[in-house]
Amino acid sequence: MEVRAQAQTIPTGFWRLYRYSGELKLNGFYREQQRNGYQFSEKQQTTNYMAGLALRTQSYFWHPRFITLDVDAEYTPARSDEKFLVIPDQAETRDVRKADIRLTILPQHKYSLVSYLNYSRVYNNRENLSNIRSSGTNWGSTLFMRSKFIPFSLGYTSWDQQEDELLTGRSFLNRQKNVEARFNKSFGSLDKQELLLSRNYFFRSFPGITFSGETTAGTPFPILFIMPIIPGCFLPARERKTRSVIMCPATGSAGMKHLTGTRPSVI
Questions:
Q1: I need a labelling partner for 24 at 20 to 30 A (CA). Which of 85, 92, 144, 194 fits?
Q2: CB 152 within 8 A of CB 134
Q3: pTM for the full model?
Q4: φ, ψ (nearest 5 deg) of residue 237
Q5: How confident is the model at residue 45 (pLDDT cuts 50, 70, 90)?
């Protein structure tokens, strides 16, 4: 008797959604307490409630081995109320929004490219205390080469974060950009060599002060070396492997600028 198995055919198309999921969150809390002391009585009522919605999708363009797309989104509002008998009442509102997008070109190929975009925004309002809105964006791409000789990756990352105090009008800005190349090589089963080259740029802005600079780290010349295993060393048998990382001292420059009577501006 002969049995033949037929491989499942994956449908192709310009864009196809093949997996999706979601999550709905509801949370509530109520507490009432009363404290009595000598010539003192306090009653407190606390109410917290939160709702959230999260969506996750996975899709591909033409074929899963060509381009894949992952999208995640989340929205979570929350509110808290505290009522007192003696001290003033207080209310707090919190709003969280997030979105993550990941695009992969040739995910199972020798050469692949991964790009991503992450966004988040958090709004927090505490009555009579603070009113802060924070937002951040992180995006970048990484190129991978899966080679038996010297696997390497080359990536670029950009990160921006801003925090605004809506009551005072003050703003805080933090930016960072990074380029990194990473090479890996093993000459045997007991060693792992790694060569890392990176360049980083950063910018920070506070009320009246701006700060920026660049740093560079890596090897001045691409030399890989092996740290041999010494017989009888005091390491567990499964930990008797070496990992050599070559890095030169970080170099770069940074500068600070103080602004008097004006709000900082991005240069």
A1: 92
A2: no
A3: 0.71
A4: -60, -40
A5: confident
With 60 as the cut, is the pLDDT of residue 157 above it? yes
| Residue pair 184/193 in contact by the 8 Å Cβ criterion | yes
Which stretch, 9-13, 14-18, 100-104, 142-146, has highest mean pLDDT?
A: 100-104
Report pLDDT digits (tens) over 161-176: 999 988 888 889 999 9
**12 versus 140: which is more confidently predicted?**
140
Strand partners, 139: 117, 158
| CA dihedral (81, 97, 179, 206) positive or negative | negative
**Rounded to whole angstroms, how far apart are CA atoms 122 and 62?**
36
Q: What does the angle CA 243 – CA 245 – CA 250 come to, to the nearest 5 degrees?
A: 160
Closest by CA position to 82, among listed 50, 126, 47, 49: 47
